[in-house]
Amino acid sequence: GDANDYIGKGLCGGKIILYPPAKATYEANENVILGNVSFYGATSGEAYIYGLAGERFCVRNSGVKVVVAAIGDHGCEYMTGGRVVVLGEVGKNFAAGMSGGIAYIYDEHDSLKTRINTGMVALESFSDDKESSEVKGMIENYVAYTGSKEGKALLDNWDTTKEKFIKVMPVDYKRVLQQKARIKDEQDVTA
């Protein structure tokens, strides 16, 4: 069934799975199933949401991994960690103040770039096969837990699907990750 506002607020482990009842006669991807401000300040865990989520989704997320069908305005605002995969539309002002974590948005019609606040983030493609596989694995879990037919269709055509994902990457976070990788490589060489 559906859920109200603040689901997963402060989540620090575990799994939240939300999907419509088996006897539902409506299309899950076209109906709101989750209220506003979900996963606010979440630090770890996983969530799989089959349906539309409200506004301010994953605000201040600092570690949870989430897959959702679509979200309202101000998604991933002030996010500092974690991974968010959105398989459909996002509302306006996505990623405002996002300083960490990574979001991946399936952009089938190349129409989402105008809804993303690029003040602190860059829009990219998958950096390598490892990253593509990580996102694919999250979607596989989503399909297994929720029965999403739309998610299954994306997986069935992954070679085409993966090309239509927009990676929303905070610029400073990317710089820090690159610096950490460089230091690790130097330590490995000297060890």
Q: Could you characterize what this model shows?
A:
- The structure is a single chain.
- The protein is of the alpha/beta class and 191 residues long.
- 26% of the residues lie in helices and 28% in strands.
- The chain contains 4 helices and 8 strands, in the order βββββββαααβα.
- The chain has helices spanning 129-146, 149-156, 158-161, 171-190, and strands spanning 12-18, 32-34, 44-53, 62-71, 80-86, 100-106, 121-124, 165-170.
- Strands 1, 2, 3, 4, 5, 6, 7 and 8 form an 8-stranded mixed beta sheet that branches.
- The radius of gyration is 16 Å and the shape is globular.
Question: How are the SSEs ordered, and which strands pair?
Answer:
Blueprint: E1 12-18, E2 32-34, E3 44-53, E4 62-71, E5 80-86, E6 100-106, E7 121-124, H1 129-146, H2 149-156, H3 158-161, E8 165-170, H4 171-190
Parallel strand pairs: 1-3, 2-3, 3-4, 4-5, 5-6
Antiparallel strand pairs: 6-8, 7-8
Helix pairs in contact: 1-2
